[in-house]
Structures are given as C-alpha cells and as structure tokens.
Design a protein that fits this description.
Elements: H1 2-9, H2 11-58, H3 67-92, H4 98-124, H5 128-133, H6 135-178, H7 187-193, E1 199-202, E2 226-229, E3 237-239, H8 240-249
Antiparallel strand pairs: 1-2, 2-3
Helix pairs in contact: 2-3, 3-4, 4-6
Length: 262
Amino acid sequence: MEGLRQPLLDPSVRNYEQNNLININNGNGQRESLVTEASYKLNANIIGAVVGLIVCIFYWHMQTCDRQVVIWFLLFTIFSCFYCAYLASFIKTQKISNLAYSIATYPLDLVTIGLFIYGFIIFSDLTEECSLSHPFPYYMMLIILIIQLSTFLKYISCGILVLMCIPVVAFILIREYQNRPEPEQTWEDFEENVFNNLEHKTLDSEIQKDYESCCICLVDFEKEDRIIVLKCSESHHFHRECIREWMLRQRTCPLCKQAVVE
C-alpha cells in the first residue's frame, strides 16, 4: 500500500497535475470569454437580420427612396444570417477552435466595413423626402451604420497608429544603418594601407638611449633593431615584428588601446 501511495506524494507528479489543471482552467476561461462575446454578437446580428428582413419584405417596391437602400438591406440580411449561423455553431459546439474563431473575426470585420462604406455612400444621397415617406428603413439604416462605424473606426485607428509608427521605425533603422560598424579590413589591405605607413625606425647608437624596451616582448632594444612608433604617442614604440603579431589579432595600441588608423 505504501508503494502505491508513493506516486501521489511525489512532488513532481503533484506539480505536473497542478500545471495541467491550470492549463485546463485557462483554456476554459478563454473559451467562456469568447462565448460571451459571441453571444452578444449573435443577439445583435439576430436583431439586424430581423430588421433587414422586415425592410426587404415590406419595402421591396418602395419608389420614393433609392432602390439601393433595399439592396443594401438585402446584403446586410444575408451577411447577418451567415454570421448568426457561424456564431451559433461556435457557441453550441466545439468544432470551431478559439484560434479559428479569433482569426475568422478579421475577414468578417472586413465585410462589415465594406457594407458600412457602401451603405454610407447610399445614405449620403438620400433626400429628406425619403425620411418623411419611409422613416423606418431610413432610421434603421442610420442606426445600423452608426453601429458598424465602431468596427470601421477600430481599424482606422489601427491604421493611423501604424502610419504614425512608420517614421519612428524608419528613423531607428536608418540610424542603426548609419551607426553600423565598418567591416574590418583584411590583413593584407591593412598592412598595405596602414601598417606600412606607420613610422619605422632602425635604432643606432645615438637614438637607442631614447628607447628602452618593447612592452610587448619586454626585451630591451638593441642597436639595429627595427621599431615602429605609433601615431597615438611618441613613447608608444615596439619591435616591428612584435607589433605586427599584435595587430594580426587586434588593431589597437597595446598601451592606450586607441585604434590604429591611417
């Protein structure tokens, strides 16, 4: 019995079960929030589909208002019915995943924006006589357009935000491009253009006293030694072969660490 109970007391098993429980709860919580959101959208689209259907049935042959008003309501009704069926299938079944529902929101919003733009063009051409003779479709269309405006403005604000960020991103990229380090020369180019142009000296008995030792190899200078004096300071002088070996690895002065340039 003690052996059978041991896995239940193992901390790793306990932590694994707790993590699984947390993941399940998080998934259920996300699903519930999406279902609540879908329920609100479903109710709104049912009302919209009913209103659109009423307009299409009772005002199909109206002459005073623009005929395109009824056509717009017909398109709106068809879209609302399709949207209702999609939302109902998401709420009632598990066939549509949370990710698929979130992704499908974007093309559906684009259709809503298209209906808003088309409806706004139609509504802007309506006359006052239409609002007096057929107030129901006129004001229902106005209310629906106002509701759809929220979806339109959401994407407009995102677009404006992106346009505002483009100059900032471009400035950062240009600055990084300008401040990027120059590619290091190959040793052959460096030796030909920089190293060979440094001050070269051959020590003789008269000047040897001004130069004591090479700080790279720590050997005292002797007569006929070939040395190089760097441009950073007259006191920074080294055996030619020593400084050459040094610069094969790093092209800086061994004493002050300044870059050796032309």
